[in-house]
Design brief:
By secondary structure, the protein is mainly α. The chain contains 18 helices and 4 strands. A hairpin with a 2-residue loop joins β1 and β2. The relative contact order is 0.13.
Length: 395
């Protein structure tokens, strides 16, 4: 299995050749970013048209939908809000990790932007940084064409409209992509630092720390403990962000180790090894329900198949661990079943087998690849507009 220490060293080139290589790489990266921006702009345009047809205000839908309002409230007023619905059901803002609202607060303090606009700016910039990370990682593993295809497919996922909203998935993906790249490049301190920041972005940001920890443990075992201090430092840094917030919430709730998980339980979110998801899936299969729920089932099932393909392709160990933990959290967690596809948006390595297949198809039968991309775009734009404007179900 490929891992950081077995990757081939970068070739030594002459200065002139190196400059031309850098220009070519920048051009390829710019092309990938251009495709991603076009995909997301068209997705937003489809949403705006749907909102106009239904007398809705599309900027508010992008900037202040569902969880976005919680994050903006934290950015404006800090923690302390809770909604009591019934005994045993309390929605507290302590369930939301602090990095995104802190970034939004910084933007509002340094600019004339309102909270919603600042949230969108943070998300859009993070999505661009994430797309750069996806391209760089994909190009390193399988070449520039695959890197470009990976970015395009990520921008055309059924739930990719979330990447254009005031949500935290772009922020997590940005830190995750570059942390994984740092691991493969042997830059352990960078990897640990980025993993720590990812852990401050979302609860499932721990997946990045898990990838760094497992990769470091593998490296340490392979070298029988004789590794540079940077490996140990990166491993220690990786889980610090996630652990710090969980412990802070625990201290605030008077239960250091269990306080955060009690907050999540009162939201209806807990890890029950998939029992709640299986019961809901049984209900959908036997009785049917809203379109969002069967679509969620298909997306989660497709993600499971793609992970099997990623294993079969012998992907690098950090990518397998990161993606596996995200998939495990999505499959094993109960509550908000319809949000599972959003939780899987940062699991971009799942798209590597599809990106490689798309590149092979494009080289052999360009029109076939065009039809596939067009179909994915239609699904992404149409379903994204439906989710945000019409479905009226939590993202």
């Amino acid at each position: 299995m490929t891992h950081a220490s077995t990757l081939a060293p970068r070739p030594v080139t002459e200065p002139g050749t190196q400059a031309r290589t850098h220009l070519s790489t920048a051009a390829a990266l710019g092309g990938a970013l251009g495709l991603f921006a076009a995909a997301r702009l068209l997705g937003v345009a489809a949403l705006a048209l749907t909102a106009w047809a239904t007398d809705r205000h599309w900027p508010a839908l992008l900037g202040r939908s569902w969880d976005s309002q919680w994050y903006l409230g934290i950015a404006a007023h800090g923690y302390g809000r809770a909604l009591h619905f019934q005994p045993g059901v309390v929605h507290s803002d302590l369930a939301f990790f602090p990095l995104y609202p802190a970034l939004v607060r910084a933007v509002t303090a340094l600019s004339p932007l309102s909270g919603g606009a600042a949230g969108l700016l943070v998300s859009w910039l993070a999505a661009a940084v994430a797309a750069c990370g996806l391209y760089t990682l994909g190009a390193r593993l399988h070449g520039r064409a695959v890197g470009t295809a990976l970015v395009l497919l990520w921008g055309l996922l059924p739930h990719s409209i979330v990447l254009s909203m005031a949500y935290t998935e772009p922020v997590l993906t940005a830190f995750a992509a570059w942390a994984l790249y740092a691991v493969l490049d042997g830059r352990w301190v960078w990897a640990g630092t980025l993993a720590a920041l990812a852990g401050l972005a979302r609860p499932n940001g721990f997946a990045v720390a898990a990838a760094v920890l497992v990769a470091a443990a593998y490296e340490i075992c392979r070298a029988r403990g004789k590794v540079v201090h940077r490996v140990w430092t990166g491993a220690l840094l990786a889980p610090s962000g996630w652990a710090a917030y969980v412990l802070w919430v625990g201290h605030r709730k008077g239960d250091l180790l269990g306080g955060y998980f009690e907050v999540q339980r009162l939201w209806g979110s807990r890890f029950d090894f998939g029992r709640g998801s299986l019961l809901l899936a049984k209900h959908l299969l036997l009785h049917g329900d809203r379109f969002v729920f069967p679509m969620t089932m298909m997306i989660v099932a497709a993600a499971t198949v793609l992970y099997a393909l990623l294993l079969a392709d012998r992907a690098p160990l950090p990518l397998l661990v990161y993606t596996g933990v995200l998939l495990l959290i999505a499959l094993g967690g109960s509550g908000f079943f319809e949000s599972k596809p959003r939780f899987l948006l940062p699991a971009f390595p799942l798209l590597l087998p599809l990106a490689r297949a798309l590149v092979r198809t494009a080289r052999a039968r360009p029109w076939h690849a065009t039809v596939v991309v067009g179909a994915l775009a239609g699904l992404s734009f149409g379903y994204g507009a439906y989710l945000v404007v019409i479905a009226n179900t939590p993202l």
